[in-house]
Amino acid sequence: MVWKIEFTKSADKEFSKLTKDVKKAIYQYLIKNVSISPRNHGLQLKSVGIIKLWRYRVRDYRLICQIKDHEVTVLVIKIGKRDAVYKNLD
C-alpha cells in the first residue's frame, strides 16, 4: 500500500525556502521510505494532545509528521533544523 504525502501550508512554505539539493533529498526520502512504510522509518514523538506525531531525519533536517491511518496519509506539519523544529509543537 502506498501512503499519500501531504504538506500543511506552513510546512510547504518551509519546504520552499530550502535549497534545491535539500528539497530533492527530502522528496526522495518521502517517496522511497515514508510513502511505503511510514512507521518503519521514523520515531514516534510524545503525543501532543490527542495527536501522535512522528519524526523523520533527512540530513540535518527534521520532518514532523502526523500519520492518518483512516486516510492512508502522512501529513508533514513542520520541516526545519533540529534546534528549531521542536519549538512550539504543543
From TrEMBL:
Keywords: Toxin-antitoxin system. It comes from the Bacteria. The keyword Oxidoreductase does not apply. It holds the Pfam family ParE_toxin. Belongs to the RelE toxin family. This is Addiction module toxin, RelE/StbE family protein. It comes from Rickettsia felis str. Pedreira.
